[in-house]
Amino acid sequence: MRCVKYVFALALLFLLAACSTAPKPAPEPEPEIVLPEGEPEGVIVKRSPGPNPYDATPEPDNAQVRALFDKANAAIVNKQWAKAEALLMDAIALGPNYSGLYFNLGRVYEGLTRLDDAVAQYENAIAMNGNNIYAMNALARIKRTQGKFNEAEALYKQALAVWPDHADSYKNLGILYDLYMGRLQDALEQYRQFQALQAEDDRLMTAWIVDLERRLPAEPAPAAPVESAPDSEENAE
């Protein structure tokens, strides 16, 4: 009887061990983004971005302005536009020389689709601080939606003149050239500049570059040199 109990207990232990060590089913693989196959032509030389001049902008030295600014940012994230507007107006009354306040007020008005007011505030932000590349990009985006492509282009170039390593300005300018102005070669150059500033290649940008290279017309092959006809016997010396 003891032998039977022992065998039964041993079998039970083996069964429990087998259950505990059984491999778990592999998780379902996440769907991958389907990107165009192929690699961009040529080599994109990587470079590290230099310091952003706008980062050198001193923060408000008024603690109350800073607190209002932070609360307004939180309200913007939650799309509480009226609350954010009131907080920013209070902050501007206390510290009217801080560019970031006008930039965020522009974001509020853009969220409310009050585009004329948004344009005015982005312009105020740039006038207050000529290094505010974020206000330049935001203003360029509105100009693009209004069909003012040349003005948008000038603003993106203005941002890149301030900070030649601002990757998003290259990307946004490339989109403007690619989708709105039909300047495919210029768009390709901007996309390559964006990719050069990434520590690792951005997969989506790689796809855009490959797609754009395929859409560009092939360059005609150089014409073969034509030998000049020999002089006639009459003109030969």
Automatic annotation (TrEMBL):
SUPFAM superfamilies: TPR-like. SMART domains: TPR. PANTHER family: PTHR44998, UDP-N-ACETYLGLUCOSAMINE--PEPTIDE N-ACETYLGLUCOSAMINYLTRANSFERASE 110 KDA SUBUNIT (PTHR44998:SF1). The keyword Signal applies. InterPro entries: TPR-like_helical_dom_sf (IPR011990), TPR_rpt (IPR019734). This is TPR domain-containing protein. It comes from the Bacteria. TPR repeats lie at residues 99-132, 133-166. Keywords: Signal, TPR repeat. PROSITE patterns: PROKAR_LIPOPROTEIN, TPR. Residues 1-22 form the signal peptide.
